[in-house]
Amino acid sequence: MSNNTTLIIGAAGAIGKRLCDALSKHGRRVIASDRMEHMPGSITRSLGSDSVAVGNVDVRDKDALKDLFRKYADENTTVWNLAAPLSVETAMDPAIAEAVTIGGMSNVIEAMGEVGARRICFTDSIGSFGATAPRSGATARWLTENPTQDPGSDYGLQKRGCRELMKTFAETSGGDPRFAVLPGVLHSESIWGNGTTEYALDALMAASRGQPYACPVDLDVMLPMIFVDDLMRGLISLQNADEGLLKEPERGYCMPGLSFTANDLFAEIRKHYPDFEVTVDLDSNMNKFANLWPDDLSTDEPLRDLGYEPTIGLDEMVGTVLAAHNERQEAQSKVFDGIDTSKDGVIDKAEMERYIRKHLVQGREQGGYVFRRQDGVDAILNKLMNELDSNNDGLISWGGFQNWSRMNSLDVMIDTYAEEQLKKN
Questions:
Q1: N or C: which terminus of the chain carries fewer CB neighbours within 10 A?
Q2: Beta-bridge partner residues of 213
Q3: Mean pLDDT, to the nearest integer, of 188-216?
Q4: Does residue 368 contact residue 360 with C-beta atoms inside 8 Å?
């Protein structure tokens, strides 16, 4: 096996999905692993012909990890450990988060030992910085030089625990660990996790839908963010850098992007949606973290050692995200209108059944699917109504359809059902 292989733990997460795609485009063989039993189609479609998606591997399961490494990795494999809850999720259940984050890192390093793999990359977070950290120009070096500082949260403490495990791996086993300190990650997709900086993604989604937004953080608190395209360039630069070029302690680097306040964001959004309404409804956890973390991250070290610097600013980020949301919503609206033949603003079961038969199953019969006589329609219809009819009144609203479509697709549901039936036969 060549050193062209990258094994990603937590590949189905927000960063993992994009890293799979970015590495594949760079010609890497990717082993995409996650605890999900069935890996998302967005991952499997992005992988190259020699790459593999492996589901049902929980980072807390030592044996499953060891089996994964023995089958797909060797001493030349680069590992990314991305399995970790976000800040708010960690605050809600610190014990589970610790088992995943620190316990998971320990298990990954142990599994690497099975095949002699040395290089492991890890995504740290601005959540590692506490009240005594620099407010401007924060560096990963500061974290390594202040190992006992209080990050002010279980989230930060657990990230520190991972850094300590990687440092021990380097000192006792000759490992090549590297970590990237990430700010809030911004992107144009329709779903994201429950973190602090995700308030910006929530606001952009609300604006694109013409909905008011209740801001959970102080309007004037500055937070560092990064657009995902910049982040992928930075992470790949960190992964690929020669060991001799990495001058920072413990090979840790902040990934700078852009910084803004909620007021800055809302002002930029109003250039596109002048009537965008905002109120303030502070979330205790989110606002606490927002006020703890640095205003911005240093650009010097990643530029010097990795050749990385950010390129995407606030105006471009907002325009890109809003355009993507608008494009998706226009497509969703066309589908909804096509199903709602009565034009009463809701979809009933009969309308949904007609649409499935006419627009989805009919065309696929020519492709030789097993439900050739449309005998799969009832199962698909019942599944859709169970998921979309939240009030159990036999009707699907536009809002309900819109929310469901953030994570689902009628076409994908049909394709998935067809594949399952083919396997059974």
A1: C
A2: 278
A3: 91
A4: no
Residue 370 reports pLDDT greater than 60: no
Q: pLDDT at position 44, please?
A: 86
Nearest to 133 by CA among 148, 118, 123, 111: 148
Burial class (CB in 10 A: 0-12, 13-18, 19+), 81: buried
Rg of the chain in Å (alpha carbons): 23
Count of beta carbons in the 10 Å neighbourhood of residue 420: 13
DSSP state of 147: T
Would you say residue 366 has pLDDT above 50?
no
Question: What is the DSSP code (8-state) at residue 266?
Answer: H
Long-range contacts of 230-233 (CB under 8 A, 24+ apart): 230/255, 230/257, 230/310, 230/311, 230/312, 231/15, 231/18, 231/182, 231/185, 231/255, 231/257, 232/18, 232/19, 232/22, 233/308
Tokens of 150: 């209080």
Lowest mean pLDDT, pick from 171-180, 239-248, 395-404: 395-404
CA–CA distance, 143 with 140 (Å, rounded to integer):
5
Instruction: State in Å, rounded, how far the first CA of the chain is from the last one.
Output: 36
- The predicted model gives 137-163 an average pLDDT of 96
CA angle 179, 183, 189 (to 5 degrees): 110
d(CA 111, CA 283): 39
Neighbour-count burial of 409, counting CB atoms closer than 10 A to its CB (0-12 exposed, 13-18 middle, 19+ buried): middle
Integer CA distances (angstroms), 153 to 70, 284, 323, in order: 36, 13, 35
Spatial contact of 111 and 97, defined as CB atoms under 8 Å apart = no
In a 3-state reduction of DSSP, which class is residue 79? strand
Judging by DSSP bridges, how do beta strands 223-227 and 258-260 pair with one another? antiparallel
Give the separation between CA 142 and CA 396, rounded to whole angstroms: 53
pTM of the model: 0.83
138, 182 Cβ separation under 8 angstroms: no
Sign of CA dihedral 113, 121, 170, 98: negative
3-state secondary structure 174-204: CCEEEEEEECEEECCCCCCCCCCCCHHHHHH
Q: Is 123 left (phi over 0), alpha (psi -120 to 50) or beta?
A: beta
Summarised one tens digit per residue, pLDDT across range 40-51 is 878 888 888 899
